[in-house]
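This week, look over our next protein:
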Amino acid sequence: PARNPVNISSTIKEFLKFLRSSMPSTIQIRQHFPETDAFILADPTHIDQILLNICTNASQAMAEKGGIAVREEMVDRAYESGMVGFFERWSRKKALAAKKQSKKED
């Protein structure tokens, strides 16, 4: 699939409209977007698939009550604010798993 410039803000907002219609009304959807739109190189269909998987898993975990918070934030800003990004958490988890595996093999 071709990657094209995509307005990620509007892509997520449109997805959330669809999501709202398919989820129980007892589940809240909270959203926060920056005032300026952000563009990324992506396939919009893949973005929708990713969001659908994450939000479906979250809503199933909540049963019939709770909420989903969707926040768009640039990665650089996340690091500046002290938040640990997804890829950093993933790489730490991967390193820890490798360390545990090597201990088992010893």
Observations:
- The CA atoms of residues 51 and 57 lie 10 Å apart.
- Helices lie at 8-22, 44-62, 75-80, 86-105.
- The mean pLDDT is 79.
- The longest strand covers residues 27-32.
